[in-house]
Every structure is written in C-alpha cells, then in structure tokens.
Automatic annotation (TrEMBL):
UniProt xrefs under PROSITE patterns: WAP
A Pfam family the protein falls into: WAP
MF (Gene Ontology): peptidase inhibitor activity
Domain WAP: 18-65
SUPFAM superfamilies named among the record's database cross-references: Elafin-like
Single GO cellular component term: extracellular region
Organism: Dreissena polymorpha
Protein's UniProt name: WAP domain-containing protein
InterPro entries per record: Elafin-like_sf, WAP_dom
C-alpha cells in the first residue's frame, strides 16, 4: 500500500512538471474586457503553444517566444 502511494505521488509530480512547455508568452497586446479562457495549463494548448495569462480572467493559447524580450514601449 505504501509503495502504491509513492507511485501515485511520483506520477502526479511528473504530470505537473510536464505541464510547462519551453519558451515565454509574447507580450500582451490584447485589450479585451470580456473574460475568456482557452486553457488552464500549457498542456491544454496544441503543439508547442503556451497557455498565456493576459488579465485576471483571460487565458489563451499563444505561440511562445524564445530569448530575452525587451519591451520597446507603447506604440
């Protein structure tokens, strides 16, 4: 029984760790006041896309960016 509990714990940790995909979310240029959620974790997004948070209630799947992002200011 103890071994089964350990296996369940290891499985849960593996699943949680694999939920994060590489890369970063692109800067949020989306200004929408309606709450919507396409995803909860990266695992919910297709392919290499990441689940990105753009407001307190807006999560959407986006193509990740790699490297250092340096904001250039507002357009």
């Amino acid at each position: 029984m103890h071994m089964l509990l350990q296996l369940c714990l290891v499985y849960a940790l593996i699943v949680e760790c694999s939920a994060q995909k590489p890369g970063a979310c692109p800067p949020g240029g989306i200004r929408i006041t309606v709450c919507m959620s396409d995803c909860e974790t990266d695992r919910d997004c297709p392919g290499a896309q990441k689940c990105c948070k753009y407001s307190s209630c807006m999560f959407t799947c986006e193509k990740p960016i790699f490297g250092k992002y340096r904001p250039t200011g507002r357009p």
